[in-house]
Write a structure and sequence with these properties.
single chain, about 5% helix, four-stranded antiparallel sheet, mainly beta
């Protein structure tokens, strides 16, 4: 007994001498510093930056997914870079250049595979999440051997990836249960699908269409029924405004039984009933919305905007369906992210080189972090959500 006690004490003493104390990752996240190819690892409880990590390449349209244990962040760069970042060691674990022009990625339901969607060459590449070794290559071929840009990539139940082909006007479903031989299903979408999302329950995949009004929806429970057009012609007979920045569908807000969708080229949100998928209202906002993101309890939707209205964030009360507050966080607000239970919202101001943290109850700023041209903000609680 004495020997066992001594060995245990010695082990604990050695652990205590190794440096940083043990901690979890549930309150960590990453802030993209787009112009300098860098990220900050941040602590959402302490509201502070823990580390800055450089050498990540072109992060002008970077996105992040997390390993299921929350230790690793997979960062997809515009230059085709895929970086596996260790949040605990606060450094790069592995990094590869997998394409010439990439636009984001996803992680599989079981956490074993990471997929990147590419513009050049058009297609999806799937990698082993532990080693970043290539396990599947899915060229987005259409027509006479042309390759389409791929957008709207998301994970789906059944260890599947779903994505849209911008040039081909299609939605593809890839079952990677056996990554050496992915099983593919292909569906017509419409003209120029520019992004896609999956509903929180993993049932519906929705592709936004840039080349025409409306959206294409695929019921993943019943793919044999094909795609269905929803909100068809929502802008019929109306003149669109110039589009300065495309809305991001992953930022569409689903609160209760309603979805709040940015209308392309319009100063409004579309409100859609998620049972019938019919439009049930519109909310006038200050500019062309880019992200519309619901607070975790569904009571508020926070909206940011394209140029020239990108210095503000508006808050919609989902009970009254009205804008109740307009915030002025700084110049060029590019992204916002709620903490896991929604008590705070982190907002990036690219041109003022800062991230502002707001209390979502008082709507007052409670912290400010310096950052070089910050854009995307990604917290680890995304790892438990389908489509994130």
């Amino acid at each position: 007994m004495c020997i066992r006690w001594c060995l245990t004490s010695l082990l604990l003493a050695l652990v205590g001498c190794t440096g940083a104390p043990l901690r979890g990752t549930g309150d960590l996240g990453v802030v993209i510093e787009r112009d300098v190819g860098r990220v900050q690892v941040v602590d959402t409880s302490a509201r502070k930056s823990l580390a800055t990590i450089a050498g990540l390449g072109d992060l002008s349209h970077a996105s992040v997914v997390y390993s299921r244990d929350g230790r690793y962040a997979y960062i997809f760069g515009r230059d085709g870079g895929l970086t596996k970042l260790d949040l605990l060691k606060r450094g790069i674990d592995k990094r590869i250049l997998q394409a010439g022009n990439s636009i984001g990625g996803a992680i599989s339901q079981d956490g074993r595979y990471v997929a990147a969607q590419n513009y050049t060459p058009g297609g999806v590449k799937v990698f082993d999440a532990a080693t970043l070794n290539l396990v599947a290559n899915i060229p987005a071929a259409y027509g006479d051997g042309q390759l389409s840009k791929v957008v709207g990539l998301t994970d789906a139940p059944g260890n599947k990836f779903v994505f849209s082909l911008f040039d081909a006007g299609e939605i593809w479903v890839a079952d990677i249960s056996d990554p050496s031989a992915p099983e593919m299903q292909k569906f017509p979408a419409g003209k120029q699908p520019y992004d896609g999302l999956i509903t929180p329950d993993g049932r519906y995949y929705i592709a936004g269409l840039f080349g025409e009004d409306g959206l294409a929806m695929l019921d993943l429970w019943h793919p044999e029924k094909g795609t269905r057009r929803i909100l068809d012609g929502y802008g019929h007979g109306e003149e669109k405004l110039p589009v300065y920045k495309m809305p991001h569908l992953r930022g569409w807000a689903v609160a209760g039984t309603r979805a709040y969708l940015p209308a392309i080229g319009r100063h409004e949100l579309l409100v859609v009933d998620t049972q019938s998928w019919h439009e049930v209202g519109r909310i006038a906002v200050a500019g062309q919305p880019v992200f519309a993101i619901a607070r975790p309890d569904g009571r508020q939707v926070w909206v940011n905007f394209a140029f020239p209205d990108n210095g503000q964030v508006q808050i919609v009360d989902t009970e009254t369906q009205q804008v109740t507050q307009t915030l002025q966080p700084g110049r060029a607000v590019l992204h916002l992210e709620f903490t896991p239970r929604g008590e705070a919202a982190w907002v990036s101001s690219r041109d003022d080189n800062k991230v502002i943290v707001y209390d979502t109850g008082t709507l007052e700023p409670v912290a400010e972090l310096p950052a070089s041209s910050p854009s995307g903000i990604f917290f680890t609680h995304r790892l438990g959500k389908i489509g994130f």
